[in-house]
Protein backbone atom coordinates (compact mmCIF):
# COMPACT_ATOMS: atom_id res chain seq x y z
CA UNK A 1 0.00 0.00 0.00
CA UNK A 2 1.34 3.43 -0.87
CA UNK A 3 0.25 7.03 -0.46
CA UNK A 4 -0.85 9.08 2.55
CA UNK A 5 -2.79 6.21 4.12
CA UNK A 6 0.27 3.97 4.31
CA UNK A 7 1.97 5.85 7.14
CA UNK A 8 -0.83 5.53 9.72
CA UNK A 9 -1.23 1.84 8.93
CA UNK A 10 2.48 1.18 9.45
CA UNK A 11 2.41 3.29 12.60
CA UNK A 12 -0.60 1.32 13.87
CA UNK A 13 1.06 -2.02 13.31
CA UNK A 14 4.30 -0.87 14.87
CA UNK A 15 2.46 0.35 17.98
CA UNK A 16 0.56 -2.93 18.27
CA UNK A 17 3.79 -4.89 17.94
CA UNK A 18 5.88 -2.83 20.35
CA UNK A 19 3.39 -1.14 22.67
CA UNK A 20 1.90 -4.14 24.47
CA UNK A 21 0.49 -2.93 27.76
CA UNK A 22 0.92 0.74 26.92
CA UNK A 23 -1.51 1.32 24.04
CA UNK A 24 -5.24 0.64 24.00
CA UNK A 25 -7.73 0.33 21.18
CA UNK A 26 -10.34 3.08 20.89
CA UNK A 27 -13.15 1.33 19.10
CA UNK A 28 -15.56 3.69 17.39
CA UNK A 29 -16.17 7.42 17.10
CA UNK A 30 -17.47 7.92 20.64
CA UNK A 31 -14.47 6.24 22.26
CA UNK A 32 -12.11 8.44 20.26
CA UNK A 33 -14.21 11.55 20.98
CA UNK A 34 -14.09 10.99 24.74
CA UNK A 35 -10.41 10.10 24.77
CA UNK A 36 -9.51 13.30 22.92
CA UNK A 37 -11.87 15.36 25.07
CA UNK A 38 -10.19 14.15 28.26
CA UNK A 39 -6.62 14.60 27.11
CA UNK A 40 -5.53 11.18 25.89
CA UNK A 41 -2.44 10.88 23.75
CA UNK A 42 -3.62 9.39 20.44
CA UNK A 43 -0.72 8.52 18.11
CA UNK A 44 -2.88 7.22 15.25
CA UNK A 45 -6.55 7.27 14.22
CA UNK A 46 -8.15 5.87 11.08
CA UNK A 47 -11.58 5.75 9.50
CA UNK A 48 -13.17 4.17 6.49
CA UNK A 49 -15.28 7.31 5.96
CA UNK A 50 -13.61 10.54 7.06
CA UNK A 51 -16.43 12.75 5.82
CA UNK A 52 -19.02 10.82 7.86
CA UNK A 53 -16.81 10.82 10.95
CA UNK A 54 -16.31 14.58 10.81
CA UNK A 55 -20.03 15.06 10.23
CA UNK A 56 -20.59 13.18 13.48
CA UNK A 57 -18.12 15.51 15.15
CA UNK A 58 -20.00 18.54 13.82
CA UNK A 59 -23.26 17.18 15.23
CA UNK A 60 -22.15 15.57 18.49
CA UNK A 61 -18.74 16.92 19.48
CA UNK A 62 -17.95 20.29 17.93
CA UNK A 63 -15.56 20.99 20.83
CA UNK A 64 -13.15 18.32 19.52
CA UNK A 65 -13.90 18.58 15.82
CA UNK A 66 -10.61 20.31 15.04
CA UNK A 67 -8.31 17.80 16.78
CA UNK A 68 -10.30 14.92 15.29
CA UNK A 69 -9.86 16.41 11.81
CA UNK A 70 -6.11 16.56 12.43
CA UNK A 71 -5.97 12.98 13.69
CA UNK A 72 -8.23 11.01 11.35
CA UNK A 73 -6.83 9.48 8.16
CA UNK A 74 -9.13 7.72 5.74
CA UNK A 75 -8.13 4.22 4.69
CA UNK A 76 -9.94 1.66 2.54
CA UNK A 77 -12.69 -0.17 4.42
CA UNK A 78 -10.89 -3.49 4.01
CA UNK A 79 -7.77 -1.96 5.61
CA UNK A 80 -9.78 -0.55 8.50
CA UNK A 81 -11.50 -3.89 9.07
CA UNK A 82 -8.13 -5.67 9.10
CA UNK A 83 -6.91 -3.45 11.94
CA UNK A 84 -9.73 -4.12 14.40
CA UNK A 85 -11.17 -7.33 15.87
CA UNK A 86 -14.76 -6.24 15.25
CA UNK A 87 -15.67 -3.33 12.96
CA UNK A 88 -17.63 -0.54 14.63
CA UNK A 89 -20.69 0.96 12.92
CA UNK A 90 -18.96 4.36 12.80
CA UNK A 91 -15.92 2.82 11.03
CA UNK A 92 -13.53 4.74 13.31
CA UNK A 93 -10.65 3.31 15.32
CA UNK A 94 -7.59 4.68 17.07
CA UNK A 95 -4.78 3.71 19.38
CA UNK A 96 -4.24 5.70 22.57
CA UNK A 97 -1.47 5.66 25.13
CA UNK A 98 -2.61 4.25 28.45
CA UNK A 99 -2.08 6.69 31.35
CA UNK A 100 0.91 5.78 33.55
CA UNK A 101 -0.01 3.59 36.49
CA UNK A 102 1.81 6.00 38.80
CA UNK A 103 -0.44 8.88 37.72
CA UNK A 104 -3.60 6.84 38.34
CA UNK A 105 -2.37 5.69 41.75
CA UNK A 106 -1.58 9.29 42.69
CA UNK A 107 -5.08 10.37 41.65
CA UNK A 108 -6.64 7.57 43.71
CA UNK A 109 -4.52 8.44 46.76
CA UNK A 110 -4.99 12.21 46.60
CA UNK A 111 -6.58 13.72 49.71
CA UNK A 112 -8.95 15.20 50.53
CA UNK A 113 -11.06 13.32 48.03
CA UNK A 114 -14.10 15.08 46.60
CA UNK A 115 -15.77 12.03 45.06
CA UNK A 116 -15.87 8.31 45.85
CA UNK A 117 -13.75 5.53 44.43
CA UNK A 118 -15.71 2.61 42.97
CA UNK A 119 -14.29 -0.86 43.60
CA UNK A 120 -15.37 -3.89 41.58
CA UNK A 121 -14.37 -6.90 43.63
CA UNK A 122 -13.27 -9.69 41.31
CA UNK A 123 -15.65 -8.80 38.44
CA UNK A 124 -16.18 -11.34 35.66
CA UNK A 125 -18.04 -9.58 32.86
CA UNK A 126 -16.00 -7.28 30.63
CA UNK A 127 -19.04 -5.40 29.39
CA UNK A 128 -20.29 -4.74 32.91
CA UNK A 129 -16.88 -3.38 33.90
CA UNK A 130 -16.93 -1.00 30.94
CA UNK A 131 -20.44 0.19 31.77
CA UNK A 132 -19.36 0.89 35.35
CA UNK A 133 -16.38 2.97 34.19
CA UNK A 134 -18.70 4.97 31.93
CA UNK A 135 -21.05 5.57 34.88
CA UNK A 136 -18.23 6.54 37.21
CA UNK A 137 -16.88 9.05 34.72
CA UNK A 138 -20.35 10.53 34.29
CA UNK A 139 -20.77 10.99 38.03
CA UNK A 140 -17.29 12.46 38.43
CA UNK A 141 -16.03 9.59 40.61
CA UNK A 142 -12.36 9.71 41.53
CA UNK A 143 -11.73 6.36 39.89
CA UNK A 144 -12.63 2.73 39.36
CA UNK A 145 -10.53 -0.05 40.87
CA UNK A 146 -10.89 -3.73 40.07
CA UNK A 147 -9.55 -6.62 42.14
CA UNK A 148 -8.91 -10.08 40.77
CA UNK A 149 -7.86 -11.15 37.30
CA UNK A 150 -10.01 -9.00 35.01
CA UNK A 151 -7.96 -6.36 33.18
CA UNK A 152 -9.93 -3.08 33.39
CA UNK A 153 -8.08 -1.88 30.27
CA UNK A 154 -9.07 -4.88 28.16
CA UNK A 155 -10.29 -3.71 24.71
CA UNK A 156 -13.80 -4.96 25.44
CA UNK A 157 -13.90 -2.98 28.67
CA UNK A 158 -12.65 0.14 26.90
CA UNK A 159 -15.32 -0.34 24.24
CA UNK A 160 -18.01 -0.68 26.92
CA UNK A 161 -16.69 2.43 28.64
CA UNK A 162 -16.87 4.47 25.41
CA UNK A 163 -13.33 5.76 25.92
CA UNK A 164 -14.15 7.28 29.31
CA UNK A 165 -11.26 5.47 30.96
CA UNK A 166 -9.42 8.72 30.24
CA UNK A 167 -11.92 10.73 32.30
CA UNK A 168 -11.21 8.92 35.57
CA UNK A 169 -8.47 6.81 37.20
CA UNK A 170 -8.79 3.12 36.28
CA UNK A 171 -6.50 0.55 37.88
CA UNK A 172 -6.34 -3.03 39.13
CA UNK A 173 -5.27 -3.43 42.78
CA UNK A 174 -5.27 -6.02 45.55
CA UNK A 175 -7.75 -5.49 48.38
CA UNK A 176 -4.97 -4.46 50.77
CA UNK A 177 -3.89 -1.77 48.29
CA UNK A 178 -7.25 0.01 48.10
CA UNK A 179 -7.22 3.80 48.59
CA UNK A 180 -7.76 5.19 52.06
CA UNK A 181 -11.29 6.05 53.11
CA UNK A 182 -14.31 4.41 54.71
CA UNK A 183 -15.31 1.29 52.78
CA UNK A 184 -19.03 0.93 52.10
CA UNK A 185 -19.61 -2.54 50.65
CA UNK A 186 -22.88 -3.52 49.00
CA UNK A 187 -24.37 -6.71 50.43
CA UNK A 188 -27.93 -8.06 50.76
CA UNK A 189 -27.47 -8.30 54.54
CA UNK A 190 -26.42 -4.67 54.93
CA UNK A 191 -28.29 -1.61 56.12
CA UNK A 192 -30.69 0.08 53.73
CA UNK A 193 -28.69 2.47 51.55
CA UNK A 194 -31.46 5.07 51.77
CA UNK A 195 -30.77 5.67 55.44
CA UNK A 196 -27.03 6.32 55.03
CA UNK A 197 -25.21 9.43 53.86
CA UNK A 198 -22.20 8.50 51.75
CA UNK A 199 -19.20 10.80 52.29
CA UNK A 200 -17.16 12.16 49.41
CA UNK A 201 -14.13 10.07 50.41
CA UNK A 202 -16.09 6.82 50.44
CA UNK A 203 -14.76 3.67 48.85
CA UNK A 204 -17.83 1.98 47.32
CA UNK A 205 -17.29 -1.74 46.87
CA UNK A 206 -19.40 -4.11 44.78
CA UNK A 207 -19.04 -7.88 44.68
CA UNK A 208 -18.77 -10.03 41.58
CA UNK A 209 -21.83 -10.83 39.53
CA UNK A 210 -22.02 -14.42 40.81
CA UNK A 211 -20.12 -14.72 44.08
CA UNK A 212 -20.69 -11.32 45.70
CA UNK A 213 -18.07 -9.85 48.01
CA UNK A 214 -14.86 -11.74 48.62
CA UNK A 215 -13.90 -12.61 52.19
CA UNK A 216 -10.98 -10.17 52.00
CA UNK A 217 -13.17 -7.26 50.89
CA UNK A 218 -15.87 -8.07 53.43
CA UNK A 219 -13.25 -8.04 56.18
CA UNK A 220 -12.00 -4.65 54.98
CA UNK A 221 -15.49 -3.09 54.90
CA UNK A 222 -16.45 -0.49 57.47
CA UNK A 223 -20.15 -0.61 56.55
CA UNK A 224 -22.38 -3.08 54.71
CA UNK A 225 -25.18 -1.51 52.68
CA UNK A 226 -28.12 -3.01 50.81
CA UNK A 227 -30.03 -1.62 47.86
CA UNK A 228 -33.82 -1.47 48.10
CA UNK A 229 -35.29 -4.43 46.25
CA UNK A 230 -38.69 -6.02 45.85
CA UNK A 231 -39.00 -9.43 47.57
CA UNK A 232 -38.27 -12.45 45.37
CA UNK A 233 -36.15 -10.39 42.94
CA UNK A 234 -32.72 -12.01 42.98
CA UNK A 235 -30.40 -9.11 42.25
CA UNK A 236 -29.62 -6.06 40.16
CA UNK A 237 -27.15 -5.92 37.32
CA UNK A 238 -23.73 -4.75 38.52
CA UNK A 239 -23.78 -1.51 36.55
CA UNK A 240 -27.31 -0.79 37.79
CA UNK A 241 -26.18 -1.26 41.39
CA UNK A 242 -23.29 1.14 40.89
CA UNK A 243 -25.58 3.68 39.24
CA UNK A 244 -28.08 3.55 42.12
CA UNK A 245 -25.33 3.97 44.72
CA UNK A 246 -23.57 6.83 42.94
CA UNK A 247 -26.88 8.58 42.43
CA UNK A 248 -27.61 8.26 46.16
CA UNK A 249 -24.20 9.79 46.90
CA UNK A 250 -24.80 12.58 44.42
CA UNK A 251 -28.06 13.67 46.04
CA UNK A 252 -26.06 14.88 49.05
CA UNK A 253 -24.13 17.32 46.87
CA UNK A 254 -22.63 17.10 43.41
CA UNK A 255 -18.92 17.96 42.94
CA UNK A 256 -18.26 21.23 41.21
CA UNK A 257 -17.25 21.03 37.57
CA UNK A 258 -19.77 18.31 36.76
CA UNK A 259 -23.32 18.51 35.48
CA UNK A 260 -26.45 16.71 36.56
CA UNK A 261 -27.67 16.19 33.00
UniProtKB/TrEMBL annotation:
Methyltransferase among keywords: yes
Keyword Transferase: yes
GO biological processes: methylation; RNA processing
Alphabetical keyword list: Methyltransferase, Transferase
Pfam families on file: SpoU_methylase
Residues in tRNA/rRNA methyltransferase SpoU type domain copies: 117-247
Secretion signal, residue range per the UniProt entry: none
Domain of life: Bacteria
Molecular function via GO: RNA binding; RNA methyltransferase activity
Annotated protein name in UniProt: rRNA methyltransferase
Taxonomic source organism: Streptomyces longwoodensis
Amino acid sequence: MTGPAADPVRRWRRLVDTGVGTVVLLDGFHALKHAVRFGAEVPVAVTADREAALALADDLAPDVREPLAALLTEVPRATYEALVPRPHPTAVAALAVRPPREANLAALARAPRRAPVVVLDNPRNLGNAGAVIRLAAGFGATGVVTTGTLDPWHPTVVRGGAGLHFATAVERLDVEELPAGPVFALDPEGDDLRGVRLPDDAVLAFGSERAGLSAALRARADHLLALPMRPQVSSYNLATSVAMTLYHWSTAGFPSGTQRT
